[in-house]
Amino acid sequence: MHILLFGGTGCVGTALDDVCAQAGVRLTAPGREQVDVTNQRQLQDCVRDTRANVVVDCTALVGINPCEQHPETAFLMHAVKTHWLLTASRDVGSAFVFTSSHAVFDGCSDQPYDETSPPRATSAYAASKLAGEQMTLALHPRGYVVRFPTLFGRRRNQALGFVDKMAVMLLQGKSPTVAADKIDSPTYALDAAGALLETLGQGTPGLYHLCNAGQTSYHGLICRLRDRLGLSQEIGAGKDADFPALAPKPLRTAMVSLRRPPLRRWEDALDDWIATDRTALQELAR
């Protein structure tokens, strides 16, 4: 298998690069200096010249607020660009993977969302991601849509996700307040990337939820993070409404999969991440 990856320095891209290296899978990941993903000709030429077995797009405009402030960029990144990629990959016979998010759900369900749960977008970010999902599934015969929850793990671009930021704050001796009413299935990016590679190997296109098993509140997640870091400061229990955004944020977005076996529990995955990346986190906290 040969994978062409766009967005190789983010959380999923970094993890996919790692698992491909371990599995002996060839991966090509052009950087921004090589391919401007907002340039249709550059992007499609790269797909057609590389002729990989699979094209994976991990590039995005991340976050509710940036997408609300620049909805045209959100739809360019998540819908228009997706059409460019799926068209070029379809033309050369490559499978195509669109990476999406639990944010496509409205967060009003008391039960975890599975692949049959109807999405309902409540923000420009979610609407643009949902548009990319629908195009991939409708227009590419070998199209995969993979939804991820909140992820943690190493990033080559040095950006910090929610869990990483909390780890750095805790290591700096701070006592953050975290939403106790926001429910998720926090997932180790390495586990998600391994599941993606396994799914591609099975060759059955469609929609997949890739997440560690179980669910917890953000507050519960960060309390376990604190404990596993060997720290003792108090973690304030707040509400998600205490951290307003420019559009409604889904409150309960835990996920499960009906299409593949469950991954390990999020608690075990978190412990593994801390054991693996503790030194790197301590460096960031200095």
TrEMBL record:
Molecular function (Gene Ontology), one example: dTDP-4-dehydrorhamnose reductase activity
Pathway connected to this protein: Carbohydrate biosynthesis; dTDP-L-rhamnose biosynthesis
Domain RmlD-like substrate binding: 1-275
BP GO terms, sorted: dTDP-rhamnose biosynthetic process
Catalytic activity: dTDP-beta-L-rhamnose + NADP(+) = dTDP-4-dehydro-beta-L-rhamnose + NADPH + H(+)
PROSITE patterns: ADH_SHORT
EC identifiers of the protein: 1.1.1.133
Superkingdom, natural source: Bacteria
Entry similarity comment: Belongs to the dTDP-4-dehydrorhamnose reductase family.
Alphabetized PANTHER family for the sequence: DTDP-4-DEHYDRORHAMNOSE REDUCTASE (PTHR10491), METHIONINE ADENOSYLTRANSFERASE 2 SUBUNIT BETA (PTHR10491:SF4)
Descriptive protein name: dTDP-4-dehydrorhamnose reductase
Organism (species): Insolitispirillum peregrinum
Lineage of source species: Bacteria, Pseudomonadati, Pseudomonadota, Alphaproteobacteria, Rhodospirillales
